[in-house]
Here is the input.
Amino acid sequence: MSDKPKVLIFAPREEPPETIKAIEGLGCELVIGNRDWQLPRTQYEDDVAAHARDCVALMGTSMRHTPISRRVMEASQRLRVVAKYTVGVDDIDTEAATDLGIMVCHAPTESNCFGVAETTVAMMLSLLKKLADRDADVRAGKWRTADNFAYYVGQRASDGFRGQTIGFVGFGRIASRVAQLLTPWRARIIAYDPYVQPSHFLTHGVQSVSYETLLREADVVSFHVVLTKETRYMFGEEQIKLMKPHAVVVNTSRGKVIDEKAVARAIDEGRLRGTAIDAFEEEPLPMDSPLRKLGNRALLSPHSASYTEGGELRQGVDWATRSVVTALKGGIPDNVYNKDVLPLWKQRFGGASISNP
Here is the structure.
């Protein structure tokens, strides 16, 4: 049995030779997790905890059905860092990590974040321009049906038309990029994010509003938040009651941010016009989901908004690798998610390399 410090890739994704070389170059033993741990409707906490024992670092892509729990992290007193290849960290108990003095790092790369932003714009425009409905009409032998008028997005100086109001719930990297992409359209853009400085809204030409105001005024409500106790099911029946009946909802963040059944019911009853969703409460989307019964009023995507040619996770793998190497050398990476942990982490590990503790 090896006495080398271990690094567990709990959710592998064909790591490049550079990652293997960097980890092993620190004198670590690289342990590759079981791909079954990522399968839906399964739980492998016992197995993951056993493999995490005595590890100095954990890294990998998303593993929502077997989260990196407090128990998994407590399996090693030497654990310094959990590094994700992705933006989201909802499959890691970040509160437990902070309590235990463990850094959690994520990878908000351009290929990931901006890929999601581009998909968000595509989804908005598809709904506003009714592309699926018009395609279905042509295939069915119909032509220019009266109910398939599109919505003009921007403001018009010629007749004073105010255009659509686009509302972002969360105004971080992704929503900011969407705002940039929509700037030439001259749409009115509002956003709710209590954690963003006023100057950030100002520089992007976006009006900061309360959540309730956004729901009342927006023609498109688009979610761009991480999944936390605060954001879990932040959109449901009570929020839908505040909205315009012709409004649409876009979710490219996390599934459990919105109540899918409430959204489907509202669309079916004519209290919302439609939805576009890339991330679902349960994945893959169950066959009996009411969203499947909405036809063209629901645009559904298999949690692949960031999946682009030449992009996907490679940049995230590289960033996670740098994070692990930095942490194991006693330094602080540039992408720590749970920054509150830093004082305790520095006390436990700061400046100490695993090769020379």
User: Anything to note?
Assistant: The CA atoms of residues 7 and 30 lie 5 Å apart. The domain at 6-106+312-349 is CATH 3.40.50.720 (Rossmann fold). Residues 110-128 form the longest helix (19 residues).
